[in-house]
Amino acid sequence: MHNRYDLGGKKIMVTGATSGIGEALAKLLRCHGAQVLAVGQNRAKLEQLAALHGCDILALDVADALAVREALAPSYDLDGLVNCAGISILESCLTLDADSFDHVMAVNARSAAMVSRYVAQHMAAEQRQGSIVNVSSQASLVALENHLAYSASKAAMDAITRAMCLELGPQGIRVNSVNPTVTLTPMAELAWSDAEKSAPMLQAIPLRRFARPEEVAWPVMFLLSSAASMVSGVCLPVDGGYTSR
Questions:
Q1: Which of 36, 38, 115, 199 keeps 20 to 30 A from 44, CA to CA?
Q2: Active-site residue, selected from the candidate residues 76, 150, 197, 242
Q3: Over the stretch 169-203, which tens digit does the pLDDT of each residue have?
Q4: How many structural domains does the chain have?
Q5: What predicted TM-score, i.e. pTM, was given to this entire model?
Q6: Closest by CA position to 152, among listed 117, 116, 113, 109
């Protein structure tokens, strides 16, 4: 029987591939036969992904619109794209800084739109059906304290997902989001190591734990695969039930 989860022969671009969910996903995709184009700013980590896991690499600041246009002008013959690059600057709505807000929006939302634009243009021109997955957040679905800019950027990402689903569907290109809860990347482990801080969030998650990067990577891989061939326009919580409350 054909394995619909097999990504052998598929080429997938992953932005934000040098850390956290993006790094876990790049490794997982390689383990399942995909050719991975890992995109990030940390050249040393990119070279490590190339040496240890056989990824193709592209050093790129996805928040730089001109650099994105120049880097993605050539076709990379892609079958899939995962927009995983992201940052978080946490500020109260009463202390919100305009430059911080613009930076978060540029990295999290605008980059997803612009990278997808160029990748989808090539896919459509080559009549190549494919899948785009945006790594959003539970913060787009519920209000979280001190998350105004981050939540706005991820809500924008979900809106981008729906718009692209509508416009790219006739080209055979599926577009979805995943919306994880707190995911224990090295940075998040440090940020949530204080039991007093983490306890209320854990109490709000029915599974009573945070996610591991690979637990987000697996649903992304499903959405990239032909097993999800009729799934498009979905914002999929990967949050242990947090948004069910």
A1: 115
A2: 150
A3: 999 999 999 999 999 988 788 778 889 989 999 99
A4: 1
A5: 0.96
A6: 109
**Which pLDDT score is estimated for 42?**
97
C-alpha distances in angstroms, 121 versus 25, 74, 196, 208, 240? Answer: 24, 11, 48, 42, 35
In a domain, 218, yes or no: yes
| Domain contains 169 | yes
Domain interval for residue 97 = 11-185+213-236
Annotated active-site residue 154? The verdict is yes
Residue 192 lies in a domain: no
Calpha distance 213→172 (Å, rounded): 29
Q: Is 150 a catalytic residue?
A: yes
Residue 22 has which token pair?
């993006």
Of these residues, 10, 118, 154, 242, which one is catalytic? 154
Is 6 contained in some domain?
A: no
The answer to whether 150 and 89 have CB atoms below 8 angstroms apart is yes
CA atoms within 13 A on the CB side of 22: 27
Domain of 38, CATH number, reads: 3.40.50.720
